[in-house]
Each structure stands twice: as C-alpha cells, then as structure tokens.
Amino acid sequence: MTTPPDAHPRFADALAALGLAGLTARIRRFPEATRTAAEAAAAVGCELSQICKSLIFAADGVPVLVLMDGASRVDVELVRRELGAGRVTRAKADVVRETTGYAIGGVPPFGHRTATRVLADRSLLAHDLVWAAAGTPYTVFPMAPRDLVAHAGATLVDVREPAGR
Questions:
Q1: 14, 111 in Cβ contact below 8 A?
Q2: What is the Cα–Cα distance from 111 to 134, expressed in whole angstroms?
C-alpha cells in the first residue's frame, strides 16, 4: 500500500486494517508542530477541548493509553482506581515510543505497535467531532468521538482532574 504524503506509514496501515483508509484523505499536515493540544487547536481552528490527547501512563509498570480532551488534565489517582493498580505514573518518552511506535506529540489514539488497555474520558463525547494526532507532531485527523473511542477499543471512564486543581 502506498502511504499518502501526510500519513505516518504505521497509522495509514492501521486505518486500512480498520476499514478506514478513506480517512487518510482527511489527515491535515501543518508546517508548525501540533505537539501540544494548544498548538493543535490553534492550527485546526477549533476549541481546545476538541483535541483528543493520547497519553501513555504506566500502571504498576504496564503501559495504558488514556484519551483525554485537550482542555483537561488526567487525574492519575482516578486512573489508578479505575485500573485497580497500586501506582500510576506518566510513562517516559522511551516507553511511549516503544509501546506505541510514535513519539510524544504525535501519538494517535489507535494503530500502536503493541496492544494496550485504553481508557477514554467521557469529556470527549461533548463534541460532534474531535481532532487527534495522526502519528507525527505535524499531523491531525478528525473523527466523531464515539467512533474514535470504538476504534481505539477504549473503555469510557471519568478520569478528568477536577477544575481548579
């Protein structure tokens, strides 16, 4: 399969495997990095909460992916309780790359090198459309949040840090 110029090869392959090859045409590449949710929202021209962050944590040393809206922070204690883990920490950059096959700032919600447990915060469902990384710090793609959660194999949870914390 030929990879479209804006798609990361692994991500393009994942889209094809999921029957979503047509989505590659909707991937948007930007000249400036969209590593952070704020950068992505500014580039796309959407609300910060319409960005879907793909964050890797380590639950008792086992990688877990948490999908969170761009305007919110993950409450690691809520993740710990949700997973029944003893300890949850932010995964280091090398673990993120080893687990997903992507660098921090470009991790998509699915299409990873290894299968991991996926949690998606319900806050993503507040929008008709969200934007997520497409495998590089310069690319994003749009998708309905319920579809994104389904394709990621995610469990819907409430792991958002309370406002004002």
A1: yes
A2: 9
